[in-house]
User: What shape does this take?
Amino acid sequence: MKPLTAFLDGFGSTWLLLVRVVSHSGSLPRQFHRFIDQCYLIGYTTMPIVAILSFFIGSVLALQAGYSMQNFGTQQFIGSLVGLSMARELGPVMVAILVAGRVGSAITAELASMKVYQEIDALETMNISPARILVMPRLAATLVMMPVLTIIGDLVGWFGGAIVADLTEIISIEPEAYFAVLRRYTHFSDVLNGLIKAELFGFAVVLVCCNIGLNTRGGPREIGAAVTRAVVVSLILILVLDYFVTQVLMLVSS
Amino acid sequence: MNHVSQTARVGLFFLLGLALTWVTFQTLNGGKVFRDKGYRLVAGFESLRELKKGDEVRMAGVVIGSVEETRLAGRRAEAVLHIDRTIEIKRDATASIVMAGLIGTNYIGIDLGSAGAPPLPAGAEIRTQITPDLNTIMTDLAALGNKLDHALVTLTGSLAGDGKGSVGIIQKIDLLVTENRASLARTTTNLQQVTDKLNRGEGTLGKLINDPKLYDEMIGTLGEIRRGAGEAKSFIANAQAIIDQVKMGQGALGALVFDQKAGEDFKSTIANFRAVSDKISRGEGTLGKLLQDDGLLRDAQLIMKKAQRALDGLEDSGPITAVGVVARGLF
Assistant: This one.
């Protein structure tokens, strides 16, 4: 009974937090510096690792696809496979997982320690909503930065696939042919699809991580437990959400 | 790090994201967010085979749209084609389902139609044409295989017999050989002997084959025959020339044979001759008398005797008096 209660508790408190954040969204221009700080942390500093990861995701995708496609002699379509996979699925999901691991965990750790050391209580005592000055700038920054990270991830992944497709002996597809096929079968609507997914994942991850951090109870030991829980819940949320969002987007776009 | 540089970095980063999105948007799909609003055409087929939503529509190999919907409409299947707004499809253009690969990729190919034909309006139905797909070809091949199989069975049956009384060709040949084995063996042996003899140069034919001298002689004979034939030819040519001359009335014979006047002269000469000989036989004229009259003969004998005497006297006397003697003896 206890896990179910805990799940419902977390679910409900997340929605309440979202309502509070939305009600405070008008104060964003006055918190511009906080917003820029969070953009810097969430977007700018995450960019290198997104680029590295996406490059190798694209490369290994091309390699594995080439390995299995050579059975049918369809290596020339590798560009469309890598292009569509990166744009529609792997780009947004990998960026969301990176954001959960790098940004979400940091947010939870920061908010949980603030909670444990009663800084949150102090803010509430001064009638300053933590949702307004702690959560809202982070969510806004995430919404702005997720598409940027995702489009970088997509493009770097495509180039990674192109390099591997050119250099691997069993594939040997020229970059021109690779990108010709990619351009032919990948529409901008697919990329847009991925950007929408990344937006939703990032938003959900940061919201959940903020909520878990703000609801930490107990001593300093609980900070670590909260971070672990935040990352695990984020990853599960990303993949579950991925399925349903993909279904909905397919219904909408068709 | 001061706040301004941090803001600048975030701003630049955001602009980078926007720029990359713009580049992607421009590169993919020719700068269209979703598929361009075009117009629709309906293509009815007996079977759409493996055609599915989203497959390409091509005109002369160029992608001009896609299959928007596939549906059943009564007793046929229909594909709704979404065609680019800029493309005009002629009223007499024909659509067919074309196989692009063996793994089930199909597209609708539309030909160009004739240049002067009016374009199809939106929502119209395009003419279609059935092209044989792989399954049809395979079915035809299977039927062909069956026929071939049947033909082979028939052939085998006629060669080997059906095993139920009727005798096959091979069996017939077998029977023929078996029955005539002895005579065949004899014939073969004889042939063997004949060829052996020939080989050893025995008999006329053998000598002819094996003896080089005979050959040389034969060649010589042939040469002579050829020479004789050449001579005969020239002889015949000469004869021909003579006959030609005769025909042309040249020469005595020719004149005689072909000249009217000469012939008549000849005839009259013959008649005269006959008259003369008649007179002679009747003893008329000098010659007749000469021949018929004995007195003439005696006179002549007398003369001959006198001449004999004169000649004898001449032998005794000298040559100066010879003339006188001859004159005396004669007169």
Summary: The CA atoms of residues 99 and 133 of chain B lie 8 Å apart. Chain B touches chain A through 23 residues (CB under 8 Å). The longest strand of chain B covers residues 62-73.
